[in-house]
């Protein structure tokens, strides 16, 4: 009788172990397939070099947008939108450094300083279009720049030019299939 109880316990332990391994494998595979954004050469939370800083107001930069790469876009993606926002800027009220949308669904990233053909420029912190690099006050703790990419079910020409970040977010409501972000830092 003891022998059959031991066999039953061993079988249950084996079953539970196999289930745990399969569950872990499924969760790992799902995480590996998640929509993700990175900036080549800069780890999440890493520091941008000065070439990406603003070129105005003694900021010392070249105003070159950082390179961004994304992977594992969801099925049905018809375009992408990209924003870079500094939540530390304006004494914690935040500053918008880049709003770009209408990026073709075939894109998997942007090179440094690149704006893809056919994409639509939104309005940055200066009230103008395009990228405007970081320029935190001298001596401030390095600011965080949240780069986000949104996979949308909207065609590239669906939205008008010149949208602010807030207007873009309102227009994207119910059209975001997935979003991914990375945090970049810069101080001077």
TrEMBL record:
SUPFAM superfamilies: PEBP-like (SSF49777)
Record's keyword terms, sorted: Signal
Signal peptide boundaries: 1-31
Pfam families documented for this protein: PBP
CDD domains according to UniProt: PEBP_bact_arch (cd00865)
Highest taxon in the source lineage: Bacteria
Keyword Signal: yes
PANTHER family: PEBP (PHOSPHATIDYLETHANOLAMINE-BINDING PROTEIN) FAMILY PROTEIN, UNCHARACTERIZED PROTEIN YBCL-RELATED
Name this polypeptide is given: YbhB/YbcL family Raf kinase inhibitor-like protein
Organism: Paraburkholderia madseniana
């Amino acid at each position: 009788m003891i022998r059959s109880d031991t066999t039953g316990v061993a079988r249950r332990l084996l079953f539970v172990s196999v289930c745990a391994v399969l569950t872990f494998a499924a969760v790992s595979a799902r995480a590996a397939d998640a929509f993700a954004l990175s900036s080549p050469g800069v780890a999440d939370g890493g520091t941008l070099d000065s070439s990406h800083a603003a070129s105005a107001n003694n900021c010392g930069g070249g105003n070159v947008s950082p390179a961004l790469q994304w992977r594992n876009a969801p099925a049905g993606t018809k375009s992408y939108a990209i924003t870079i926002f500094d939540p530390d800027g304006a004494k914690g009220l935040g500053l918008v450094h880049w709003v770009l949308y209408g990026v073709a669904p075939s894109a998997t990233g942007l090179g440094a300083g690149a704006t893809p053909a056919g994409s639509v420029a939104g309005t940055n912190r200066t009230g103008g279009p395009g990228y405007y690099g970081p320029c935190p006050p001298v001596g401030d703790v390095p600011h965080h720049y949240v780069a986000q990419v949104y996979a949308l079910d909207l065609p590239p020409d669906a939205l008008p030019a010149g949208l602010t970040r807030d207007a873009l977010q309102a227009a994207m409501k119910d059209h975001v299939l997935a979003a991914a972000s990375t945090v970049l830092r810069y101080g001077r």
